[in-house]
Amino acid sequence: MATSIQGRSCRICNVVLAEMDNYNPSVYTERVNEAIQILRGEVMPNFAHKVESAVDILSLPSSVTDKVDENDFIDASRLVYNGVRDIRNSRRM
Q1: DSSP string, 74-85
Q2: Which Pfam families match (predicted)?
Q3: Cβ burial 82-91 (10 Å sphere, 16+ → b, else e)
Q4: Is 27 buried (19+), middle (13-18) or exposed (0-12) by CB count in 10 A?
Q5: Which is the most buried residue in 10, 38, 55, 63, by most CB within 10 A?
Q6: 29 near 90, Cβ under 8 Å?
Q7: Which domains does the chain carry?
Q8: DSSP per residue over 24-78, as a string?
Q9: Taking the C-alpha atoms of 42, 38, 86 and 29 in order, what is their torsion angle to the nearest 10 degrees?
């Protein structure tokens, strides 16, 4: 699951970066590039770590699976959504 989401996020970043190559450097392109760097450098590694931790815990015996923090996982997923939305919003401006 995490690989699929990471792949799609990477594809979004690559497509938008390729499109930014058609523009002259400006505040606009800097804002878009910054949003991409945040998604790639901070959000996706955090998401991958949370998914990996949850999968590791869920693969253990059932008595240990109560340690999965659903809210933590939901927050990591929300950060991915917000990161993609930030790229979209900065792209539209």
Answers
A1: HHHHHHHHHHHH
A2: Vinculin
A3: ebbebbeebb
A4: exposed
A5: 38
A6: no
A7: 2-92 (1.20.120.230)
A8: -SSHHHHHHHHHHHHIIIIIHHHHHHHHHHHHHHHTS-TTTGGG--HHHHHHHHH
A9: -170
Do 73 and 55 contact (CB within 8 A), yes or no?
A: no
What separation in angstroms does the CA of 36 have from each of 22, 30, 77, 84, 88? 16, 10, 16, 8, 10
Q: How many Cβ atoms sit within 10 Å of the Cβ of residue 53?
A: 16
Q: How many residues does the chain have?
A: 93
Residue with the two structure tokens 């392109």: 29
For 55-79, write each residue's pLDDT tens digit: 887 787 766 656 667 888 788 899 9
